[in-house]
């Protein structure tokens, strides 16, 4: 399974962070689409059905767990990896209960994220 055909969506309101993340993943052969908030992310998921969504927990408007709940209602096969800041592991645990496959704390390791995305893509395509 080639990374080039993975369908990844990054949903995060921190423009500089998400563009840097998309660029670093692209250098590893993982092309990503980017949404700046939960509403835009849900619209892109409805349209494109990615394998994996990397979702920030804390954004203006819809919070990460609400976006996660809606993803799982509409597209249960889409795998979700949550991103959170230090000290928000309680929210991440709630996200895991709602169906996220994993979570990472910012700042994150690109190697670790790449590995987690790879595992999630395999699960999405079973």
UniProtKB/TrEMBL annotation:
| Response regulatory domain span | 7-121
Source species of the chain: Fundidesulfovibrio magnetotacticus
Q: Does the keyword Phosphoprotein apply?
A: yes
Q: What is the official name of this protein in its record?
A: Alkaline phosphatase synthesis transcriptional regulatory protein PhoP
Highest taxon of the source?
Answer: Bacteria
Recorded GO cellular component terms are:
cytosol; protein-DNA complex
Where do the TM regions start and end? none
Q: Quote the SMART domains the UniProt record gives.
A: REC
Keyword DNA-binding part of the UniProt annotation: yes
- MF terms in GO: phosphorelay response regulator activity; transcription cis-regulatory region binding
4-aspartylphosphate: modified positions: 56
Q: Which GO terms describe its biological process?
A: regulation of DNA-templated transcription
> Which keywords annotate this record?
DNA-binding, Phosphoprotein, Two-component regulatory system
Organism lineage: Bacteria, Pseudomonadati, Thermodesulfobacteriota, Desulfovibrionia, Desulfovibrionales
